[in-house]
C-alpha cells in the first residue's frame, strides 16, 4: 500500500503551531461575566451562569462575540504560513464538480460547480446524453451576499414549471417560488412560512408543509406548532391554497404528504422529532387515512414504490440495519412480507427500476449495491470497486439511471447505468490536478481487544 506522507515541519505547523519552535503567544481572552441563574430539573437545581449569552439578539451578546472574534483573528492573522495554506487549499479545491444527472418527471437535471462557487448551479439537460445542458437556476444570483440557499426543488406534473424553495440567512423558514422552464421567467406565485417541507408535484400544483404565520418578532424564536399540509394550484394566490391535513389536538407533530407515481395513493408521514415517524395512507380522493405503523415514533417507515397495488417499504422496525417489506393496502398493518430481510450490514437506501430493487448498503465502510426481483430473489451486485456510491434514482419505468462513485484516491466519477443489462458507462469524470495512478487502496481488518474485526 502507498501512503501520503506529510513532511514533519508541515504536519507540525498544522497541528501544533504553539509547540514546534514557534514563539509562544499569550492570549488575553475577554472576560465573560457570570450571572446568578439556576434551573430546576425535576427537583435538581442546575446553575447556568452564562444564560445571558443565549439571547443572540442582544447588544451585549453581540459585543461579546465581537471581542472574541478580535482575539481569534488577531491570532490567526499572525500565523506566517496561513496565507500559503489557503492558496494551496484553494488551488486544490478549484476544479469543476458535477453531480450525477437525475430525472424528475420527463426532465433531466444535474448540479454543476465551476470550482469555488458558494452554491452549485442547477442545469437542465435536454436528454440523458446531454452533458452540457443549460442553466436552469443559479442560487448564487438569489442574493448579493450569498446568504440565500436553494433548499428544495421539483418539476410540475406537466413538466413546464420548476418549483423550488429557498432559505434566507440560514433560517429554517423557507419560501417557494415558481419558474417557467422554457422562458426562464418567474411566475407571480409565492408561498411563505414553509418549514421542514418536501415538494410533491400533484395535478396542476404542489403539495407542501407549513406552519401558521408567526407574530411579528417571533419569527426566529417561536416554537414549531400546528403543522399543516396544503395544496397550491399554480397561478393562484397562497390565500387560495387548500388545507389537506392538520391535527390541532397534537400541535407538536409535523406532517408531510407524498403521492405515488401512479397518483393513486397518498402517504401521510407524521413525526414528533428528528428520529422516528408514523405512516398512514389512503386512496387519493378518500377522506380518511389508514395507519400502516403505530404512533409511537420509535421507528422509521419510508415507501419506496407502489407496484401493482403492493406497497414496498423500507423500515427499521425489528431491524436496526433496516429491511424492505411488502404490504397489502387491504391489510396494511398485518402480514408484512420480508422481501429483503435485515442483514448484518446497513441498508442505506433503495429504489425500484424495471421491477428490480436496487438496495444500497454500507458494508465494512464501503458501498455495496445489491439487486433483487420484487419477490426478494437475489439477482446480482452492481460491479463497483471499493468506495462510496450514490444515485440509482428514477421511476420503475426507467431503463436508464445514473450513479456517482468516489474513493480514497478516485475523484468523483458519474456513470450512466443500463438497468436491463446491468452495464455501467462512464458519463463524466472530475478533472482534478491529481494523478490517482500513483496510489492504491487496500481493504484490511484489524482485531480489537474483544476480538471484533474492525474494517
Strand content: 35-45%
Q: Residue-averaged pLDDT, rounded?
A: 92
* Distance linking N and C termini: 16 Å
Count of separate DSSP helical elements = 3
The main pleated sheet reads as: 5 strands, antiparallel
Pick out the low-confidence regions.
Answer: 1-21
Walkthrough of the structure:
- It is built from 3 helices and 33 strands.
- The chain has helices at about 10-15, 60-75, 80-95, and strands spanning about 40, 45, 95-100, 100-105, 105-115, 120-125, 135, 150-155, 160-170, 175-180, 185-195, 200, 205-210, 230-235, 240-245, 255-260, 265-270, 280-285, 290, 300-305, 310-315, 325, 335-340, 345-355, 355-365, 365-375, 380, 390, 400-405, 415-420, 425-430, 445, 455.
- The radius of gyration is 26 Å and the shape is globular.
Briefly say what this structure is.
The chain is mainly beta and 455 residues long. 8% of the residues lie in helices and 40% in strands.
Amino acid at each position: 500500500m502507498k501512503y501520503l506522507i506529510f513532511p514533519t515541519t508541515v504536519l507540525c505547523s498544522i497541528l501544533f503551531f504553539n509547540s514546534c519552535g514557534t514563539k509562544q503567544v499569550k492570549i488575553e481572552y475577554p472576560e465573560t461575566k457570570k450571572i446568578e441563574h439556576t434551573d430546576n430539573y425535576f427537583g435538581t437545581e442546575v446553575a447556568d451562569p452564562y444564560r445571558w449569552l443565549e439571547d443572540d439578539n442582544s447588544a451585549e451578546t453581540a459585543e461579546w462575540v465581537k471581542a472574541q472574534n478580535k482575539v481569534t483573528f488577531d491570532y490567526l492573522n499572525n500565523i506566517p504560513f496561513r496565507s500559503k495554506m489557503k492558496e494551496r487549499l484553494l488551488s486544490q479545491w478549484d476544479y469543476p464538480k458535477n453531480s450525477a444527472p437525475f430525472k424528475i418527471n420527463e426532465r433531466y437535471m444535474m448540479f454543476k460547480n465551476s470550482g469555488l462557487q458558494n452554491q452549485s448551479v442547477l442545469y437542465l439537460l435536454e436528454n440523458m446524453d446531454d452533458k452540457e445542458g443549460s442553466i436552469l437556476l443559479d442560487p448564487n444570483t438569489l442574493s448579493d451576499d450569498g446568504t440565500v440557499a436553494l433548499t428544495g426543488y421539483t418539476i410540475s406534473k406537466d413538466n413546464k414549471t420548476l418549483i423550488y424553495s429557498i432559505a434566507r440567512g440560514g433560517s429554517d423558514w423557507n419560501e417557494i417560488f415558481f419558474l417557467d422552464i422554457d422562458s426562464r421567467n418567474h411566475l407571480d406565485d409565492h408561498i411563505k412560512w414553509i418549514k421542514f417541507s418536501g415538494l410533491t408535484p400533484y395535478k396542476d400544483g404542489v403539495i407542501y408543509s407549513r406552519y401558521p404565520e408567526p407574530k411579528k418578532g417571533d419569527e426566529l424564536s417561536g416554537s414549531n406548532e400546528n403543522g399543516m399540509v396544503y395544496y397550491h394550484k399554480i397561478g393562484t394566490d397562497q390565500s387560495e391554497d387548500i388545507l389537506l391535513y392538520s391535527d390541532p389536538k397534537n400541535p407538536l407533530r409535523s406532517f408531510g404528504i407524498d403521492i405515488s407515481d401512479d397518483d393513486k395513493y397518498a402517504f401521510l408521514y407524521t413525526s414528533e422529532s428528528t428520529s422516528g415517524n408514523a405512516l398512514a395512507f389512503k386512496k387519493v380522493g378518500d377522506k380518511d387515512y389508514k395507519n400502516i405503523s403505530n404512533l409511537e415514533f420509535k421507528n422509521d417507515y419510508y415507501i419506496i414504490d407502489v407496484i401493482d397495488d403492493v406497497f414496498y417499504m423500507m423500515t427499521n422496525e425489528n431491524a436496526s440495519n433496516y429491511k424492505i417489506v411488502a404490504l397489502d393496502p387491504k391489510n396494511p398493518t398485518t402480514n408484512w412480507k420480508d422481501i429483503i430481510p435485515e442483514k448484518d450490514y446497513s441498508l442505506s437506501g433503495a429504489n425500484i427500476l424495471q421491477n428490480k430493487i436496487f438496495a444500497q448498503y454500507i458494508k465494512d465502510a464501503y458501498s455495496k449495491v445489491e439487486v433483487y426481483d420484487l419477490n426478494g430473489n437475489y439477482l446480482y451486485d452492481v460491479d463497483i470497486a471499493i468506495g462510496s456510491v450514490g444515485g440509482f434514482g428514477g421511476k420503475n419505468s426507467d431503463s436508464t439511471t445514473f450513479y456517482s462513485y468516489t474513493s480514497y484516491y478516485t475523484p468523483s466519477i458519474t456513470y450512466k447505468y443500463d438497468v436491463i443489462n446491468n452495464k455501467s458507462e462512464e458519463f463524466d469524470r472530475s478533472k482534478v490536478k491529481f494523478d490517482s495512478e500513483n496510489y492504491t487502496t487496500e481493504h484490511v481488518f484489524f482485531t480489537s481487544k474483544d476480538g471484533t474485526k474492525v474494517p
